[in-house]
């Protein structure tokens, strides 16, 4: 950018800064929402519940299927985002 362009667009600097901050907040929220780690922890906890006898095998199978489905779409999102970068 030239000096004249910078001077003419100077009043827009706060707006550009606010937009950048909002973009960073959205990016961070998406990363946390699509993070597969919490699902992996839940799977480990679920397996421990089964081993401890706190849940039946049918309940384990049902919940495991749900968690694996969720893990799959989170990982697919992560792969898609890496492909776009």
TrEMBL record:
Domain of life: Bacteria
InterPro entries linked to this entry: GvpG
Family annotation (Pfam families): GvpG (PF05120)
Protein name: Gas vesicle protein GvpG
Organism: Streptomyces ovatisporus
